[in-house]
Amino acid sequence: TETLFTPIDAGALHAKNRVVMAPLTRNRADNDTGEVGDMHVDYYRQRAGAGIIITEATQISPEGKGYFQTPGIHTEGQVAAWKRVTDAVHETGGTIVIQLWHVGRVSHTSLQPGGGQPVAPSAISAGVQTFTADGFVDTSTPRALGLDEMPRVVADYVHAAKMAKKAGFDGVEVHGANGYLLDQFLKTGSNHRTDAYGGSPENRARLLLEVLDAVTEVWGGDRTGLRLSPFSPANGIEDAHAQETAEYLIPKLNRFGLAYLHMIEGATGGPRELDEGQSLAALRKLFNGVYMGNNGYDRAMAIEAVETGKADMVAFGVPFIANPDLPERLRQNAPLNAPDKDTFYGGGREGYTDYPALPETVS
Ligand SMILES: C=C(C(=O)O)c1ccccc1
User: Fold this and answer.
1) Is the CB of 57 under 6 A from ligand 1?
2) 177 CA from centroid of ligand 1 (Å)
């Protein structure tokens, strides 16, 4: 029988177990170059015991950057830097995909090319804060992307997808969650467009489906994942018709033959409870591929979810920060290291590469 600790092929992605390292922003890349460095090589190598590592969110273009010291995957220097990470993970027997990210309106002029306004479906502020060289600041009011700019945005995803291939990743995850650009187009609170990219669920899903079409052209559907958060309020996002939007979108994904659908179940990093009329089980039934559940799972929940078929894989965020060997600890039901919240974002090796693994058990 399938358990949390048995292998699975998520499309063409071979996973030795069902324990996934969720994408975790850690704000430790070089801010000027967007390049990762030596400590990222150690951090990801230490966690190569994951069935699949999904990297931290990585911007596809300068416009797609929304926070201080987040990495990119659009320059040759960034490719060379990431290649050291993928080589180290592969030498250690791991599987690693990179999360392709465009923040849309969750950004600040100081982080934007030429100090310009962030871009979004409509000129509506996220109403949240982001993290810049000067600490936390209110996100800047975005400008609405012109209809004529949509092909260029899709082309930016294609460029990053190709650079991810050069960097030696096993695949990519398109970030369609947490109130960032693609989620901003999907949802009614942020998308007030009156053209073909706004209004109906079909129109609001258009850009995401165009991006998936283009990215699967580069990678094949079987090496392309997608992350969604239908019911999360993260980064000031809301949808007046969340269930309807998701029930429109998810069947439309099946034609791509995606490696997996990564679903944030409830509020990102928060309550798993849904509103009246909302159902994750209904959404799961609409997807024909590998379903990866995420959000607040503990060991017992994850084991039960896989053994009862509620999920094929489970992604863990914070537990993987503090436990480089999380899959082994879960398998042994060993105690977990406590995470240090003060070193989640920014800083150096402390709270990043210095969490201990279990003492080597001499087999
Ligand atoms: C990429 C993020 C997400 O998907 O929520 C993120 C960004 C900054 C801090 C935490 C998480």
Assistant:
1) yes
2) 10
Closest C-alpha residue for ligand 1 atom 9 = 25
Positions marked active-site: 180
Radius of gyration of the chain, Cα coordinates, nearest whole angstrom: 19
Instruction: State the average pLDDT over residues 199-221.
Output: 99
ipTM for the complex? 0.99
Per-residue pLDDT tens digits for 35-70: 999 999 999 999 999 999 999 999 999 999 999 999
pLDDT(363) > 70: no
| CB of 67 closer than 6 angstroms to any ligand 1 atom | yes
* 139 CB near ligand 1 (under 6 Å): no
Q: In the predicted model, what is the mean pLDDT of residues 141-145? A: 99
Q: Give the predicted TM-score (pTM) of the model.
A: 0.98
pLDDT above 90: residue 160? yes
Rounded distance between C-alpha atoms, residue 172 and residue 19, angstroms: 17
Q: 220 alpha carbon to ligand 1 midpoint, in Å?
A: 26
Per-position b or e across 117-156, b if 16+ CB within 10 A of its CB: bbbbbbebbbeeebbbeeeeeebbebebbeeeebeebbeb
Residue nearest atom 8 of ligand 1, based on CA coordinates: 25
